[in-house]
C-alpha cells in the first residue's frame, strides 16, 4: 500500500512539474513579445502624447515606453525631486510640470541631477518641446519606502500624489522621461531610462521539466524495485 501511495505522489508531482514548465514556456513567449514590442516603440518616430479624452484608456500594454513628443511651457516653482540611484551615482529625478498647448498638464522627468546640484531647477517660460518615453505613474513608493508628501520626500514618481502636493489639479496619468539634449546643459541629464526586462523563463522551464523527469525516474525505480522484490518473494505490501 505504501508503494502505491508513493507512486501516486510521484505521478502527481510529475504532472505538477510539467504544468509549471508549460506555464513558463508560455511566459517566455509573452516576455519575448513584450521585449520586441518595447524595442520597436523606443526606436520609433515620436508621436503626440495621448489627449485628455484618452487618458482613461492609457495602459502599460498599449502605451508604456512609447516614444512621444509634447510641446508647451514649464510651470515654475512646481518641481519635484524623486530619489534615484543610477549608473552616475545617487541623486534625484527632476520632475517638472509642463502645460501643453491644449491646456493639459503633464509631468516631465527632465532627467537626473546629483545630490549636490544647485542649478536653476525650472527653465524660463519659453516654449519647450520634449521628446521622450511615456511612463506610467508609480503609486506604490520605492523599495521599502513610502512617499511622504507632507515632508516632500519622494521615492517613486507618483504622478497623482505629486500633483496634489503641488496644487496642480488634474494631470496626465503618466509622465514623460525626456531624452538627452546634446545641446543642453549637463544637468539635468535626460535619456537615462533603463529599459531592461528579466527573462529567465527558459531556465525556469528547464528546471521544472528536469524535476518532472526526476519524478518519472523515481517512480520507475520504485516500481522496478517492487517487481524485483515480488519476484524473489521478499516483498510484502
The total strand number stands at 7
H-E order: HEHEEEEEHEH
Q: Helical residue percent?
A: 25-40%
Instruction: Please outline the major beta sheet.
Output: 5 strands, mixed, barrel
Portion in beta strands: 15-25%
Large-scale geometry: elongated
Strand order of the largest sheet: 2-4-5-7-6
Terminus-to-terminus distance: 5 Å
Overall average pLDDT: 76
Using only C-alpha atoms, the radius of gyration works out to 27 Å
Q: How many helices in DSSP terms?
A: 4
Structural class by helix and strand composition: alpha+beta
Describe this entry's structure for a reader.
By secondary structure, the chain is α+β, with helices and mostly antiparallel strands. It is built from four helices and seven strands, in the order H-E-H-E-E-E-E-E-H-E-H. It has helices at 2-42, 60-63, 159-166, 201-231, and strands spanning 47-48, 67-74, 80-86, 89-100, 105-114, 127-136, 174-178. Strands 2-4-5-7-6 form a five-stranded mixed beta barrel. It is elongated and about 85 Å long.
Give the key terms.
single chain; alpha+beta; five-stranded mixed barrel; 35% helix; elongated
What's this, in brief?
This protein is of the alpha+beta class and 237 residues long. It has helices at residues 2-42, 60-63, 159-166, 201-231; strands at 47-48, 67-74, 80-86, 89-100, 105-114, 127-136, 174-178.
Q: Topology of this structure?
A:
Blueprint: H1 2-42, E1 47-48, H2 60-63, E2 67-74, E3 80-86, E4 89-100, E5 105-114, E6 127-136, H3 159-166, E7 174-178, H4 201-231
Parallel strand pairs: 1-2, 5-7
Antiparallel strand pairs: 2-4, 2-6, 3-4, 4-5, 6-7
Amino acid at each position: 500500500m505504501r508503494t502505491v501511495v508513493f507512486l501516486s505522489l510521484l505521478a502527481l508531482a510529475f504532472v505538477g512539474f510539467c504544468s509549471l514548465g508549460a506555464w513558463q514556456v508560455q511566459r517566455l513567449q509573452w516576455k519575448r513579445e513584450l521585449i520586441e514590442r518595447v524595442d520597436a516603440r523606443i526606436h520609433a518616430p515620436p508621436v503626440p502624447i495621448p489627449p485628455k479624452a484618452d487618458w482613461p484608456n492609457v495602459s502599460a500594454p498599449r502605451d508604456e515606453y512609447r516614444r512621444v513628443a509634447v510641446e508647451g511651457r514649464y510651470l515654475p516653482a512646481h518641481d519635484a525631486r524623486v530619489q534615484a540611484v543610477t549608473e552616475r551615482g545617487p541623486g534625484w529625478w527632476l520632475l517638472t510640470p509642463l502645460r501643453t498647448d491644449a491646456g493639459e498638464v503633464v509631468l516631465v522627468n527632465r532627467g537626473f541631477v546629483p545630490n549636490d546640484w544647485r542649478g536653476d531647477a525650472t527653465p524660463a517660460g519659453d516654449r519647450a518641446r520634449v521628446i521622450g518615453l511615456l511612463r506610467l505613474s508609480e503609486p506604490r513608493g520605492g523599495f521599502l519606502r513610502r512617499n511622504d508628501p507632507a515632508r516632500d520626500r519622494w521615492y517613486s514618481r507618483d504622478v497623482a500624489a505629486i500633483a496634489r502636493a503641488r496644487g496642480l489639479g488634474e494631470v496626465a496619468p503618466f509622465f514623460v522621461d525626456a531624452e538627452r539634449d546634446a545641446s543642453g546643459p549637463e544637468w539635468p541629464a535626460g535619456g537615462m531610462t533603463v529599459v531592461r526586462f528579466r527573462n529567465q523563463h527558459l531556465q525556469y522551464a528547464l528546471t521544472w521539466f528536469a524535476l518532472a523527469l526526476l519524478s518519472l525516474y523515481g517512480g520507475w525505480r520504485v516500481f522496478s524495485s517492487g517487481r524485483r522484490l515480488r519476484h524473489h518473494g521478499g516483498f510484502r505490501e
